[in-house]
Amino acid sequence: MKDACRISAEALRAAGEAVKPGISTLEIDTIVRRYIEKQGASPSFLGYGGFPASACISVNNVVIHGIPKATTVLREGDIVSIDVGAFYRGYHGDNAYTFPCGSVSEEAQRLLDTTRASLYEGIKQAVAGNRIGDIGSAVQGYVEARSYSVVRSYVGHGVGAKLHEDPSVPNYGTPGRGVKLLPGMTIAIEPMVNEGTRHTRVLGDNRTVVTVDGKLSAHFEHTIAITPDGPKILTVCE
Ligand code: MG
To answer: What is the arithmetic mean of pLDDT over 175-201?
Structure first.
């Protein structure tokens, strides 16, 4: 898991370094695929449910599952959510980060900062003996106190030999409710936070998820392990 997660994190970092005005999301996807394959791993998302690329790249009002395209060219001020997974020696790692393209508006930066911080609020609750609801409640409380909304139609998940495993890890919830967290569990916590309403819709390609009001959305994710010593973030670079 550590190796798969490290490769995922390094591929995401490489993707982030490529984010700049003028690059297409397909070019970023190629960087991701090449990096992962160079490590002897394979991109978790490529072919998953028929997904045609190695990374989901979701720009501005796209929440998740954006398909990389040669015609989607980044512009100054965009926010670019990149979700990357790697499969290595039987296990998956999964992580996401929303990168600013060049300089972004103050409003966009505040959304990024809040979403990223909410992920860490969730991770703090990923402690043995706590329950799934403690994670979701922490994320939701942090986000809603800052007048943003938490996407509910898509959630985090267990991750391991399969990319998506039980339990579901919603970014909303009630403290003390849900599956109990035990040492050895590995889960992906991934708040998706909207500037406006939490409601989303799927475009005609049956994949791309966008905000119904056209406002911005951000997404940050880590794969973490529950350990006797607390949560350990696995998706870190060497
Ligand atoms: Mg995930």
So the answer is: 98
